[in-house]
Amino acid sequence: MAKEMFLAGCSSAAYGAMLSRVEVISSYPIRPYTGIMMELSKLVANGELDAEFVHGEGEHAQVSIAYGASAAGARAYTGSSGVGVTYAMECYSPAAGGRLPCQMAIADRALDPPGDFGSEHTDVMSARDQGWIMGWAADPQEVLDNTIMYFKIGEDARVLLPQFCCQDGYFVSHIPGKVSIPDQKAVDEYLPPFNNPHPLDPTKPVSHGPQIFPDQGPAIDLQRAQAFIDTPKVIEEAVADFNKQFGRNYDPFLEEYMTDDAEFVFFLQGGHARTARFAVNHLREKGVKAGMVRLRFMRPFPTEAVAESLSKFKAVGTIETSTSYGGAMKGGNLIHEVRSALYDVPNPPPVTSFMAGLGGEVVSLEEFYSMAKVLTQAAKDGKVDQYVYWVNFDKV
Amino acid sequence: MAKAVETQNLEMAKSARRVPQEEWYLPGHRTCQGCGPALTYKLVSKATGGDSIFLGPTGCMYVANTSYLCSPWAYPWMHTQITNAGAVASGIEAAYQVLIRKGKYKGKLPNIVCMAGDGGSIDIGLQAMSGMMYRGHDALFIMYDNESYANTGIQTSPATPYGANTTFTPPGKAIPEGKVLFPKDACQLVIGGHPAVHYVATASLAYPVDLINKVRKALNYKGPTFVHIHSPCPKGWLFDAKKTVEVAKLAIETGMWVNYEWENGEYTYQHTPKEYKPVAGYMKGQQRFAHLTDAHIAKMQAFIDAKLKAPGIPVALPVQGPRES
């Protein structure tokens, strides 16, 4: 029987990893994700989880240990935050290119400078094109569920890709919520043991990662790209099975909130969705037809689902929570993806972006209301005046 | 019930005739004529046999060996970044510990061997190597030492000797010596700071049976071990490709290289000549030292003399208080 506990995102991720029966764990301390490893180290020390707990000498080593273990055929788990995520950057492509489906928990954090503990998505968003599956949870329950689901998706023979299982630092990682912890037997039924089709096994020798000649490159890249093209179907199946097995109600790619008759929507990922839902409720009370669409997977980006969803509205505002300095839209990253997804839609809605929630700042209700003003005007005019609004600094 | 992890016990080869005929490092690679590291690879592979997993951090022995679809290894092999051989080996070893314990892998613990160049060991790879050794993973770290970043066109590494002409230390009017620094001592780095390590050895491709037995002895130890292998590089050191073994022998005869074992704190020495030849003879055979003056060679001789007085043995120095003159 499932049991209920009151857990913050870090502990919830640890329980998700334990229920997934991870076999090799590699740690290195950095706030705020550290809580995940503190919890896991206790579970290993108490004998509740039979795993090798390896203290990496840095994040670069953590990811190397994890993908090495995955290459040998073990289910491997690691994690990090902020500059730890970027320190390990060299190791992401070898893990993805080696098709080694280890999982890395991310409790995101602003990069330096200045020194800042707060949540910001820029750390792991910098690694979004390294060939890892990635997406954000909005609350501790979803953290636990995603941890299990991501292993199921990443280890699928059609996929074989590593995963960034992300949660907002502090907003999700450190704020407890009610979490339903499934029964181990039910998880075992859902998630079979990891079966690496080409492990480093002396009885069946293989070579991993040899040098290629330039003309061999495109074919290998195409295989990786194809894995991402095939992944959405696997995600749909894995989410449907999960909902059935554990009585949840996840949409594979998007959470839509009050969108049936919405004129405009906030488009975002992660824990700020919880404030956004409140903001939408309050705006509705004032007669403003606001809604929210929350992205559950950044990679693979669900282009068709996003196009279908967002083309229903008269205006869209992305809430960035990460930076893309000098990018095409002069602000964040989400808007690039959203505008691209909408490019071929007839009469697409105007899309603008809001720089908010950077450096760990709360995106307050007031900020949502001022964003709503911009979007109400955009819906009325059928166009946006700016690619990007810096909330509290621009004329928002 | 957790299963005990069984390890292998490799026999010592009593002579060259007792070395197995089988090759685990096969022809077909693209190493240079007279390549020392390739010969080292062949001998190390004979020592380990097939129940092994090799890791190849970026370097000559990655780039020149692995052409996609025709790699030369008959055992499982994996590329690692030049930075992280020790960490990837740690992950593989940890995985085998848990997989054997849970009964998911039926065999004995494979020999896990990092085949790293000098850069991948004691320069950019040092952090990961040290991490593996500190944590006590049951794996062998081999530093095949060709005394430079040879793969990228012979640039200086912390193993490059004083006075060598490399493409990053060209001799010139302002810097006539070329390389001005003396190299790191790889074995002392390992011995000095890693209590989990109980066996460290140096070996030379000029003494193949000794090399094979040191590799086997290292693998028979539980926990991390380190073998530093002198592997001359005709292209980088600029000598005739047919003289690789000769150059390696001359290194031992001049004291430029010392073969020894360190086992649980005890040193033993092998192939020590009755009398050392002057280093000039070794240096004059290699064009990388051709620009040096007699004064430079004397500086090298003094460095080697000091090292040979106590090769590998920590010297007890009187402790001087900070205020004493």
CATH superfamily of chain B: Thiamin diphosphate (ThDP)-binding fold, Pyr/PP domains
State mean pLDDT of chain A (0 to 100 scale): 97
Q: What is the overall number of helices of chain B? A: 11
Beta-strand content bin of chain A? 15-25%
| Domain module tally of chain B | 1
> Based on DSSP secondary structure assignment, what is the total number of beta strands of chain A?
15
- Using the alpha-carbon principal axes, give the shape of chain B: globular
Task: Tell me the total number of β-strands of chain B.
Answer: 8
- Note the overall shape of chain A: globular
Could you list the spans of chain B in which at least 5 consecutive residues all have pLDDT below 50? Answer: 311-321
Word description of this protein:
The complex is a heterodimer of chains A (396) and B (325). Chain A is an alpha/beta fold and 396 residues long. Chain A has two domains: 244 residues, Thiamin diphosphate (ThDP)-binding fold, Pyr/PP domains (Rossmann fold), CATH 3.40.50; 137 residues, Rossmann fold (3-Layer(aba) Sandwich). Chain A is built from 13 helices and 15 strands. Chain A has a six-stranded parallel sheet with strand order 3-2-4-5-7-6, sandwiched between helices. Chain A has a six-stranded mixed sheet with strand order 10-12-11-13-14-15, with helices on both faces. The longest helix of chain A has 30 residues. Chain A starts with a strand and ends in a 6-residue tail after the last strand. Chain B is α/β, with parallel strands linked by helices and 325 residues long. Chain B has a single domain, classed as Thiamin diphosphate (ThDP)-binding fold, Pyr/PP domains (Rossmann fold), CATH 3.40.50. Helix content of chain B is 33%, strand content 14%. Chain B is built from eleven helices and eight strands. In chain B, a hairpin with a 2-residue loop joins strand 7 and strand 8. In chain B, helix 1 crosses helix 7 and helix 3 runs parallel beside helix 5. Chain B is globular, with a radius of gyration of 20 Å. About 3% of the residues of chain B have low confidence. At the A-B interface, strand 3, helix 3, helix 5 and strand 9 of A face strand 2, helix 3 and helix 5 of B.
